[in-house]
Amino acid sequence: MKKRVIGPQPGPQERFLRTPADICIYGGAAGGGKTFAILLEILRHINNGKFGAVIFRKNFNQIMNEGGLLDVSRELYSRIPGARLQMTPKSVWKFKSGAKVSFEHLNNDSSVLAMQGAQIALICFDELTHFSRYQFFYMLSRNRSTSTVKPYVRATCNPDSDSWVAEFIEWWIDQQTGYPIPERSGVLRYMVRVSDKIIWGNSVEELVSQGIDKNDIKSVTFIASSLEDNKILMERDPSYLANLKALPEVERERLWKGNWKIRPQAGMYFRRADFHIIQESEIPKNVIQWCRAWDIAATEPSEGVDPDSTSGTLMGITEDGKVIVAGRINVKIAAGAVENLIVNTAITDRARYGYMYTVHIPQDPGAAGKIVAQRWVTLLQGFDIRSDPVSGSKIQRALPFAAQCQHGNVYLVAGAWNESYLNELEGFPDIKHDDDVDSSSDAYNSLAGNSFNIKGLL
Predict the structure, then answer these.
(1) What is the rounded average pLDDT for all residues in the chain?
(2) Cα end-to-end distance, the chain, whole Å
(3) Higher pLDDT, 318 or 62
(4) Residue 454 and residue 456: Cα distance in Å, rounded?
(5) Structural domains of the chain ordered from first start
(6) Residue (of 288, 448, 271) closest to 356 by Cα position
(7) Residue 362: CB partners within 8 Å, gap ≥ 6?
(8) Orientation of helix 435-447 relative to helix 418-427, angle to 10°
(9) Helices (DSSP H) in 111-211: which residue ranges?
(10) Tens digit of each residue's pLDDT (9 = 90 or more) over 289-317
């Protein structure tokens, strides 16, 4: 039977597996085959019975998610004779020789203390920007080996301008454009860490000449990748590139073009020029669902206090996917008045727009959030009540709606409220109050099918 050869794709993935660097960071854009490359790196040592590696993710879910680290490892390692996956008490692949690779997570800085005493020949960080500088350098102290393998570190990442990683690899990045410098990709530099300060050199000799012990010096490189380098993914899923192009500008620059300098700022998510202004009489007849989503203020207005507003955005979606923003309420009122406002607005909305109408209420995490959600079910009996536990950053929650706006798919019904609404959206995220952004994001996410009915949850 013909043997099936498993190996890297030509280009950056191959260079990643060939580099002699003590520390190599691989990435710069989405879809470059980064996780697969790390799993391939393990295979060079599976006949060494004393070899051990650990691949870290930020949290346990990132290991277990559909299509995540564990699933990709199954696709690769299950083809190797004698390889077996042990799931308890943690996920560990063991190979015929006795070599093994463990999947671990480091939720916070104190998590690294569980690694005290560990000796790990190969340490891998999948998505290094999710980890702190402290976690990375602490784990370097665990990078040692009793096997014949010289200890080394491999990491992958997507760009994050605010991460410590952006500063760490700045020599490989054009500081004007934010894009990787092609001729520096894979080039070795040398570093030593003294009193938490990194001293860089272009050679070992350069650092030794400064009185630095040769044994303290580590070689480092960064290898840039892009979706276009992953020919297999491009063939299997040609639509993936279109998905990246459809992202809002900031995420598109990061995940498609590998930009390390781009930052969220006012006008980069929402621009008034992207909205089509229509009259109420022009609302399409093929709207199939309406949703009023609320962002409820937690602080009551009082003298000398500038609290958030309670915001409710009314949004509809048509059969062909057009998004209609038909109204918005934004008021600073006491908590007791909020319940009456939401109930009365729901009655008015449904009388106007029919029964294809839902009310979306944010749900705080934990048991208290479920109790509050149950109260809304009682207050709004007869209505379709939907809720999502609040999770992720405000920017992450806003991305789907921002993408629709930037691609000219959002229609705004003309009204006196338009100016203040658009002012807030354009100012996001550099504004104090973003209640309309939150309610608009939740309304769109609910319409797009990203929420669930809390009646089935409680």
Answers:
(1) 88
(2) 55
(3) 318
(4) 5
(5) 12-245 (3.40.50.300), 272-456 (3.30.420.240)
(6) 288
(7) 294, 295, 296, 387, 388, 390, 438, 442
(8) 90
(9) 133-140, 164-168, 204-208
(10) 999 999 988 666 665 667 888 999 999 99
How far apart CA 458 and CA 440 sit, in angstroms, is 25
- Classify 295 as helix, strand or coil: strand
Average pLDDT over residues 391-396: 82
Instruction: List residues bridging with 448 in a β-sheet.
Output: none
Beta bridge partners of 359: 292, 385
Handedness of CA 336, 337, 341, 344 (dihedral sign): positive
Q: Look-up: residue for tokens 């480091």? A: 106
Nearest residue to 452 (alpha-carbon basis) of 367, 385, 391? 385
Q: How many whole angstroms separate alpha carbon 377 and alpha carbon 338?
A: 15
3-state secondary structure of 433: coil
Buried b (16+ CB within 10 A) or exposed e, 98-121: ebbbbbbbbeeeebbeebeebebb
Locate 104 and state its tokens: 């671990």
Confidence grade of residue 454 (pLDDT, cut at 50, 70, 90): very low
| 358 bridge partner residues | 291, 384
d(CA 8, CA 16): 9
The radius of gyration computed from the CA coordinates of the chain, to the nearest angstrom, equals 26
Per-residue pLDDT at 2: 55
pLDDT the model gives residue 137: 95
Q: By the 8 A CB rule, do 121 and 53 touch?
A: yes
CA distance 184 to 173: 8
Rounded Cα gap, residues 220 and 239, in angstroms: 35
Residue 301 vs residue 405, higher pLDDT: 405
Q: In what order do the strands lie in the sheet with 410-413?
A: 276-278, 410-413, 323-331, 310-318, 287-295, 357-360, 384-387, 452-453
4 close to 79: Cβ distance less than 8 angstroms: yes
| pTM of the predicted model as reported, rounded to 2 decimal places | 0.67
Residues 6+ apart with CB under 8 A from 61: none
Closest CA to 363 of 393, 333, 387: 387
Question: Residue 292: which residues within 8 A CB-CB, separation 6 or more?
Answer: 312, 313, 314, 315, 345, 346, 349, 357, 358, 359, 360, 443
Grouping H, G, I as helix, E, B as strand and the rest as coil, residue 121 is coil
* Assigned token pair, 322: 């057009």
Q: State yes or no: pLDDT of 457 exceeds 50.
A: no
Place of tokens 């276009």: 228
